[in-house]
Amino acid sequence: HGDSRDFDEEVKSVCPFCGVGCQVSLKVKDGKVKYVEGIDGPANEGRLCVKGRFGFDYIHHPHRLTKPLIRLPDAPKGLNVDPANPFTHFREASWDEALDFAATGLAKLRDERGGKAVAGFGSAKCSNEEAYLFQRFIREGFGHNNVDHCTRLCHASSVAALMENVGSGAVTATFNEIENADVAIVIGSNPTENHPVAATYFKQFAKRGGKLIVMDPRGTALQRHAAHMLQFRPGADVSMLNAIMSVIVEEGLYDEAYVEKFTENWEDEKAHLAGYTPEKMEGICGIPADTLRAVARAFANAKAGMIFWGMGVSQHIHGTDNARCLISLALMTGNVGKPGAGLHPLRGQNNVQGASDAGLIPMFLPDYQSVTEDSIRGHFNAVWGSDKYTDGEKGLTVTEILDAVHAGQIRGMYILGENPAMSDPDVTHARQALASLDHLVVQDIFLTETANYADVVLPAAAFYEKSGTVTNTNRQVQMGRPAVPPPGEAREDWAITVDLARRVGLDWTFTDPSQVFAEMKQGMKSLDNITWDRLQSEGAVTYPSLSPEDPGQPIVFADGFPRKDGRARFAPAEVIQPAEQPDADYPMIMTTGRQLEHWHTGSMTRRSKVLDAVEPQANCSLHPSTLRRLGVDPGGKVKLQTRRGEITLLARADRAVAPDMVFVPFAYVEAAANILTNPALDPYGKIPEFKFAAVRVVAA
Ligand code: SF4
């Protein structure tokens, strides 16, 4: 990648991909990022994965949006545009014309049909300041809470369970704390692909003798380092976890003093677990009773244990129950609030923690303050110098918003940096909703699949082209800095939102993201002692930070929880089957996820030369025996069909996938996995069941 003389300038920033939040040094020459190196950030200590190291060049891709675009009259909406000439259905416009057009359309719907005719999707790819401004734009500009972002598709159920039972949605300990643990559970997570730098710490933990317990229906590379690999039946998480906890109760392995001092509802939990012995559950979860007992003893007898989880836990209709079980397991063993212990949902997007903290969710204002409390809404109205944010009803979530579009209740949307035309479950339904809107404003760096449905497209700066803070999975607030200017007339997201806000009648005067950060501090105690200047000079501060000198607390809740009487709560969980069971027509199970080289809907990584060269084609993974049964050679084509639609793609042989399963990455528009996925929702987190759908697989 060149040598140290091969650049003019070096800029420190944060990787824009995953929630690990690796700090990077961007080597810049002639206005372009030439290469990237890891630096000594608190989460990565110099390490980077392939995405952080080689996936930066999408920012210089020729398809970047460089001018505002307005849809041509009568141009069809949708994906059927010429891929070689994606801009056919738009004309270029000046910023003034595009902003006027965008804002007038939204304001007209508000004024004629009421504020709830307009909803917004913000983005976990933007900075904290941009997420904050986006939720303020909808709440102040349109008076209600119908604003959400992709946390809904990711860890919403984990946050629901954590808020309910621990009183806080963030991790209780950084992932780096694993170095002080004796045992660690990694469940429903494939960190070597999805949080690769975090995975290096997990491997080091195992190499120095830590007991790693991996639980996943699909085999993972991490299992090579594991003391126990529990490849349980898809969707059987609750039965397996309840069985493990029942052993801890039955054999008296729980931490009685901790339970007595810091928890509530223990008697109910104990009574509930009595019905879940390993001998009863082994037939349901597919893990032998002896193994369940061994794992229970290993976790409960360790001095300190951590629990890490990912989308495999959260993306189920019982995702909140899955997370409730993990919380209960940590509580009964006293594994919260001390070194080497804790609950850690590995956050996906680079700023999904920060965007959620900043209030980009329909039920909470910044810092998870309830939208239903008059006094809290009053506080934000006062901070905003406004009386326009009036609605005390919890807003609609991502999928509910698109349902409301179908129902004709929502007629206009402002979508910033999200790609629901690829990311939503049953994406045909989502695309139909987008096509039916009267007015769609999309702000992005590329003409994404979603932008193909827009009436107006506003060209935005990529992360390496702007200033702003982001918060990683470890609660570390970090400073992102611009290394190169945005291409053409593209502008920073916060500045575009400010201009739109002024045009829908809001008195916004921000001229710099530092001013937004200062306003956020007026409503977010989590940012106490963290200032823009500190972040500029220190690069990162973990919240909570207890003083202007404190780098922040890696472990929280040593002295109790932010709940009534300082006690966390046991929430017994019943077994709920996945919403769609395999049957004679659709006999196999489909699950979706990411691959190491591609990020989410592919808008960035499929435009990154190195990453796209490694994984250029839509593919799925099947067990070799399944391929033999289908008469398909590895590398041949298969057709996947569910009750929602069908896709055709290449088949890869993979022994890690059970014979009755197919794993489908969701980054490929030419065979979009979400055409197939089930939109059934977890009732608490409102997260779709991306991890389980009944599917038919045939040779194509
Ligand atoms: Fe970027 Fe995540 Fe890879 Fe770190 S682990 S370099 S944050 S994608």
TrEMBL record:
Signal peptide stretch: none
Keyword field: 4Fe-4S, Iron, Iron-sulfur, Metal-binding, Oxidoreductase, Repeat
Ranges for domain 4Fe-4S Mo/W bis-MGD-type: 8-63
UniProt keyword Oxidoreductase present: yes
Domain of life of the source: Bacteria
Family, as annotated: In the C-terminal section; belongs to the prokaryotic molybdopterin-containing oxidoreductase family.
Protein name per the record: Formate dehydrogenase subunit alpha
Boundaries of the shown chain within the full protein: 220 to 919 of 919
